[in-house]
Structures are given as C-alpha cells and as structure tokens.
Amino acid sequence: MKAKLAILFILSLLGSSCKKERTCNCTISESGNRTTHSKTAGTSISIIPGIPPIELSPAKDTTFVSPYMYNNTAVAKYDKVSKGAMRKNCAANYEESVNEQEVNIVPGSSTITITQSGIKTYSCKIE
Questions:
Q1: Residue 117 pLDDT > 70, yes or no?
Q2: Quick one: which of 40, 15, 18 has its CA closest to 111?
Q3: pTM of the predicted structure, to 2 decimals
C-alpha cells in the first residue's frame, strides 16, 4: 500500500512539473548598412518667352551610406507548456536577412529613398 502511494506521489510530482509557466528570453541584434539616396529637382525661371530659362539652383543627386546597429530584448511568457513544446516555440539561435526600403516623394521637388539592408540575429534562452 505504501509503495503504491509513493509511486502515485512521484508520478503526480512528475506530472505537475512537466507543464508549467516558462519564459523565452531573446536578445535581438541587427546590423547592416543604411543607404540614403536623395534626388532634388533644380529650379529655373523663364522671364522672356523664347529665351532659355535661367537656372536658379541645379538638380542634385546624392547618396550616403552609413552603418547601423540595433540591440533589443524580447520576453515571451507561456503558461502551462511542456519543455518539448517550449523548445519548439523558443528557438535557440537563428538569423534572418533584412532588406527594407522607404520612399518619400515631394511632387516636383525631391525624392528620398532609404534602403536598410543587413542581418538580424536572435539568441534565445528558456527560463
């Protein structure tokens, strides 16, 4: 009788410890280059018809490249999840490429294109 109770007690402890609240703590690092391309229309004025216009400011086309780096952390809590399921939800380490582009247009005046490209690295631990 005592042996059966001891076995049931051990099994209940094992069962209760399998599924519990677990936390996935990730450090996210992103690095790469940001390219800013600016294209500005020139301004000119035409005073007399038939005479070529006078250029007040020339058109400009410039490109700047600068490196960038971001670090961030993300925490996700899971309730009543087993260790095996948590390993699937919280991958240890992985990388993904980043290629984002943003275009701002001022009609008749300028266009600014910002391209951000690099690698985002996730490093996660289960707590």
A1: yes
A2: 40
A3: 0.61
